[in-house]
Design goal:
- The structure holds 2 protein chains of 2 kinds.
- By secondary structure, chain A is α+β, with helices and mostly antiparallel strands.
- Chain A has a domain at about 5-40: Histone, subunit A, CATH 1.10.20.60.
- Chain A has 3 helices and 3 strands, in the order ααβαββ.
- Chain A starts with a helix and ends with a strand.
- Chain B is α+β, with helices and mostly antiparallel strands.
- Helix content of chain B is about 40%, strand content about 20%.
- Chain B has helices spanning about 55-70, 170-185, 225-245, 290-300, 305-315, 320-325, 330-340, 345-360, 375-385, 390-405, 410-415, 425-435, 440-445, 450-460, 470-480, and strands spanning about 5-15, 55, 70-75, 75, 80-85, 95, 105-110, 115-130, 130-135, 145-150, 155-160, 200-210, 220-225, 255-260, 265, 280, 285-290.
- In chain B, the strands form 4 sheets. In chain B, strands 3-7-8-11-1-12-13-14-15 form a 9-stranded mixed beta sheet.
- The termini of chain B are far apart.
- The chains are: A alpha+beta, B alpha+beta.
- At the A-B interface, β1, α3 and β3 of A face β2, α1, β10 and β17 of B.
- β1 of chain A pairs parallel with β2 (about 55) of chain B.
Chain lengths: ~90, ~475
C-alpha cells in the first residue's frame, strides 16, 4: 500500500489541518512507513478466522433509563473560546 | 417541457427522537425546552476520557418501531463513528450505525387516490441527535455567527430511511403521515413536530415520464412540517425542470429550505466533503439481540392504526368514521373503552365524533384531559337506549357532564330530566292538549297528516321535551282513531 501526497492533503483538509509543503512531505513518508509496518499483518493466513466487528469479547452492555443530574452550565461553558447568553458562540458556518 | 412532462422520484429520511427519559449514551435528561447548555455532561459534550454507555430503552424502542414497520430485526448490530466537523457536534463525530443497523428491509402501505401502494423501508438505525444552532441572521447562509445549545446533543434518534419509491407529492405526504402515526401509536416518539422531535430530509430527482433511469437528486434537509415538505418539493421539482429544460445538469448537493421565501438554497461549500470515514465505535460493545428479546417487545406492540381502522369498519362503521376515530390514538382509545360498556358501535361513534368532540374542540380540551370519561359517555347512551331520556335531552346532559364532571344519571335526577314514559301520566297530558286544540283534532281526522305533528309538538312543549316520543305517538294515534 502506498499513500500519495494528494491523499495526505485530502486527509489534512478533512481533519482541518493546515500543513506546510515540508510537513506534507514528512507525513507522506511517516504514514507510508506506518502502513508498511501494519502491512506485515496481511501476510497472516486469516482464511479460518471469522470477521470481527469489535475487539472486546463483550456484548449488550447497557444502562437503565434513569435521569441523573447534568453538569453545571458554567462548567460546560468554561473552556468555550466565546460565549454569549449561555450559548457557545461560533463563527459563520456556511 | 412542462413540469407535467417529468416524473418525480423521492425517498425520505425521517429522524424521530425516541421517547426516553435520558440521552442515548449518558444519563442527562432529554426534556425539551431547558435553559441552554443545562442538560449537558462530560459524555454528551465529548470531553476527553469519557465512556458512553448505551441506554437499554433506546434499543427497546428501536426494536418496537422496527416491528411496527415490518422490518427484520438484526441478530447482531453495532455502532459506528460518522466523522464530520460541524459546531453542533461537540465530538466531531456522530455515533451512529453504518453497516449493521438494528432494523432493515421493512415497508409501509399507503393509500393515495383509493390506491394502495407499498413503500419500502431500507433501514432504521439508532444514533445521537446533534445540538441546536441559533443563527444570528435570518437564515444559515446569511448569518455572520451562530449560537450553540448542546441540550439536544445525545438525545436518541431513530433514522428511518425509505426506498426511492414515491412518485408524487401526495405519496410523500401519505408516507410521512402514516409513519408519524405509527411512531405515535407505538409511543416510540412523542412526534411533536412543532418541537422538532420528528424531522424530514427529502431526496428528490426528476426524469422525463416513461424513463426508467434515475435523475440526479438533491437532498433538502431538516424540514419539520408536512406543509414545508409539500412546498419545498413543489419548488424543487420546478427548479430541476428548469435546469433540465435549459439542457443543463442538476448538481447533486444538499440544500436548505427557506420557509419565509419559499425557496431552496445550496449549502455547498468547498469545505464540505461527504467523506464520513465511518469506523466501528471502539467505546461501545456490539448488541446481540436474541429472539426472546424481540418477542418480548412484540408483545407490547399496540394495535396499529391500519388494523384498528379495519376492526372499526368490521363493527359497522363507515371508512370515513373509522378514519376520523383513529386519526388520534387518544380518541380511538376513548371509543374502545366506551365500547366495552356500550355495544352499539355506530351510535357510540356518532356521539364520540359528534357532541363529545364538538364540546372538546369548543373548549380546546384534549381527549386525554376530558372531564367526561368513556364510562360516563357509555352510561349516558344506555340511558337513551332505555328510554330514560330522549336523544335531544341527552345533548344538554352531555354539556352539563363536561362542565360539572357529574354522571348523566345524577344530572338527570337533579334537574328532573327523566323522560315521561308512564302511560297514565302521558294520557292525561295528551287529553289536555287534545281538548285545547279541537281544530287540529278535526283537521287530522279530515286527513291532514300535518296536524299530528303539531299536536305532538304541543305535547312535547307541555312536558318540556321530556315525553317519550315513541309512547306519545302510539297513545296519540290510539286516541284519535
Amino acid at each position: 500500500m502506498k499513500i500519495s501526497r494528494e491523499e495526505v492533503e485530502y486527509v489534512a483538509m478533512l481533519a482541518r489541518l493546515e500543513l506546510t509543503a515540508q510537513e506534507t512531505e514528512d507525513y507522506t513518508g511517516n504514514l507510508n512507513s506506518i502502513l508498511e509496518y501494519a502491512g506485515i499483518l496481511e501476510k497472516l493466513d486469516t482464511s479460518e478466522v471469522l470477521p470481527t466487528a469489535h475487539a472486546v469479547p463483550l456484548h449488550n452492555v447497557m444502562r437503565e433509563d434513569v435521569v441523573k443530574s447534568s453538569m453545571d452550565a458554567a462548567k460546560v461553558l468554561a473552556n468555550a473560546p466565546d460565549v454569549e447568553n449561555g450559548f457557545f458562540k461560533v463563527p459563520k458556518i456556511v | 417541457m412542462s413540469v407535467n412532462d417529468y416524473e418525480m422520484v423521492c425517498g425520505v429520511e425521517v429522524h424521530a427522537e425516541l421517547a426516553t427519559k435520558t440521552k442515548i449514551f449518558c444519563s442527562c435528561t432529554t426534556e425539551f425546552g431547558g435553559e441552554q447548555n443545562t442538560h449537558v455532561c462530560p459524555v454528551c459534550s465529548g470531553l476527553p476520557g469519557v465512556l458512553p454507555v448505551l441506554n437499554r430503552e433506546v434499543v427497546n424502542l428501536a426494536i418496537k418501531a422496527g416491528l411496527a414497520l415490518n422490518c427484520e430485526i438484526a441478530d447482531y448490530s453495532k455502532f459506528d463513528r460518522k466523522n464530520y466537523y460541524y459546531p453542533d457536534l461537540p465530538k466531531n463525530y456522530q455515533t451512529s450505525q453504518f453497516d449493521l443497523p438494528i432494523c432493515k428491509a421493512g415497508w409501509l402501505e399507503i393509500m393515495v387516490d383509493e390506491e394502495k401502494k407499498r413503500i419500502g423501508i431500507t433501514r432504521a438505525h439508532m444514533e445521537e441527535d446533534a445540538g441546536k444552532l441559533v443563527h444570528s441572521g435570518e437564515t444559515i447562509t446569511s448569518s455572520m455567527e451562530s449560537f450553540v445549545d448542546y441540550n439536544r446533543t445525545g438525545v436518541p434518534l431513530l433514522e428511518i430511511v425509505s426506498e426511492p419509491d414515491m412518485r408524487s407529492i401526495p405519496e410523500v405526504i401519505a408516507y410521512l403521515e402514516q409513519l408519524v402515526e405509527i411512531l405515535e401509536y407505538t409511543e416510540v416518539s412523542d412526534c411533536k413536530l412543532e418541537q422538532g422531535s420528528v424531522r424530514f430530509d427529502v431526496n428528490v430527482s426528476i426524469r422525463p415520464k416513461g424513463s426508467s433511469e434515475f435523475g440526479i437528486r438533491s437532498e433538502i434537509k431538516n424540514l419539520n412540517s408536512y406543509s414545508s415538505v409539500r412546498r419545498c418539493l413543489e419548488y424543487e421539482i420546478e427548479r430541476q425542470a428548469k435546469i433540465l429544460d435549459e439542457g443543463e445538469r442538476v448538481i447533486q448537493e444538499t440544500r436548505t429550505w427557506d420557509e419565509g421565501k419559499g425557496i431552496t438554497l445550496s449549502l455547498r461549500s468547498k469545505e464540505e466533503a461527504h467523506d464520513y470515514r465511518y469506523f466501528p465505535e471502539p467505546d461501545l460493545v456490539p448488541l446481540v439481540i436474541d429472539r426472546e428479546w424481540v418477542e418480548r417487545i412484540s408483545q407490547t406492540l399496540p394495535e396499529l392504526p391500519v388494523a384498528r381502522r379495519a376492526r372499526f369498519q368490521s363493527l359497522g362503521l363507515s371508512e370515513y368514521d373509522a378514519k376520523v376515530l383513529t386519526d388520534s390514538k387518544d380518541l380511538a382509545d376513548f371509543f374502545d373503552q366506551a365500547l366495552i360498556e356500550y355495544k352499539d358501535a355506530k351510535v357510540l361513534a356518532n356521539w364520540v365524533m359528534g357532541d363529545f368532540s364538538r364540546i372538546l374542540n369548543a373548549q380546546q380540551c384534549a381527549v386525554g384531559d376530558s372531564p367526561i370519561t368513556p364510562l360516563q359517555l357509555a352510561e349516558l347512551l344506555k340511558l337513551i337506549e332505555k328510554g330514560t331520556i330522549s336523544g335531544k335531552i341527552a345533548k344538554s346532559v352531555i354539556e352539563d357532564m363536561y362542565t360539572t364532571g357529574k354522571d348523566a344519571g345524577t344530572i338527570i335526577k337533579e334537574k328532573g330530566l327523566a323522560q315521561i314514559s308512564d302511560e297514565g301520566a302521558l294520557s292525561g297530558i295528551i287529553d289536555g292538549v287534545l281538548a285545547a286544540n279541537p281544530q287540529s283534532v278535526e283537521d287530522y281526522r279530515a286527513g291532514k297528516e300535518r296536524a299530528l305533528g303539531f299536536l305532538v309538538g304541543q305535547i312535547m312543549k307541555a312536558t318540556k321535551g321530556q315525553a317519550n316520543p315513541g309512547k306519545v305517538n302510539q297513545l296519540l294515534k290510539g286516541k284519535l282513531s
